[in-house]
Every structure is written in C-alpha cells, then in structure tokens.
Hints:
With 157 residues, this protein is mainly alpha-helical. Helix content is 82%, strand content 0%. The chain contains 6 helices and no strands. The chain has helices spanning 3-28, 33-50, 54-77, 83-93, 98-125, 136-156. α3 (54-77) packs antiparallel against α4. The mean pLDDT is 92.
Amino acid sequence: MGWDNLSFALLGALGLLLVSAGIEDARLRTIANWKNAAIALMAPLWWWSTGVAPWPDLAWQVGLALLVFAAFCAAFHFGQMGGGDVKLIGALALWLPAVPLMQMLLVMSIAGGIVTLVMLAASKFYKNRGPIEIPYGVAIAIAGLLSIREPLLNQIT
Length: 157
C-alpha cells in the first residue's frame, strides 16, 4: 500500500470516527473514550504518511494541539463543555495545521450555535423543564468533516 493509499485510508477512518462520535453524542450525550483515543493515536500515522517534518512542523502541531486542548479544558472547568467534547477537539487538533484548525474551530462555533438554537426550540416545543444538554460533539463532527474534505477529495481527483 502506497503512502497516498495510507493517507486516504486514515482520512476515511477519521471521517467514520467523527460521524460515529457525532451520532453517539446526539443519542447518548457522551463520546466514547476509545473513539477519541483512536483519533489521537492515528495522528502520528497521518503525520508520517503526509511527510510532516519532525522539526519544526511536528513540534508546532503538537504544541498547537496542546494549546487548543488546554483552552477547551477551561471551558470544561466552567461547565460549558463536556469532557468527551474537549477530548475530541484535542484529538482532532493533532490532525490539522494552524490555519485549517482555526477554520475548523470557527465552523464548529457556528455549527454549535445552530445546534444550541435547535435544542432550545425543541425544549420550548416539548415544554422540557430540565436543563438542556447540548450535543456539541455533533458540531465538532460537522466541522471536522468539513475540514478534512479537501485532502480527502484531492485523493480522488
């Protein structure tokens, strides 16, 4: 199997894991740790198959992912996000260079706002009196899938 095939397979696996995590979060309001771990553990294979230089590119990639993870840990601390969501963002950050990562975070924010509005409307419609739990994994999965579409589609053409 060539490097292009490995890259394509890794992106496909990432896409399937993101879809699975989004569905699981929508249904159960949780994301399995093994999915987050699989996404994070596949990242070094992705780096290798795409020729990421160990220095400075790989160091920047890991540092940026740690920074993003730390920022969202603060959101978790203040009860704004679930732990599975934070781990999913951190794992996904290992895959994306700086500019695509920032684009993914922007799309995630917009999608998260839309998911929140839908959940609020559903709560009002069904007259739910309890606290609303937002399945933010759906927004993360949508943003992640949109961010990997270009490399995935470039493999086909």
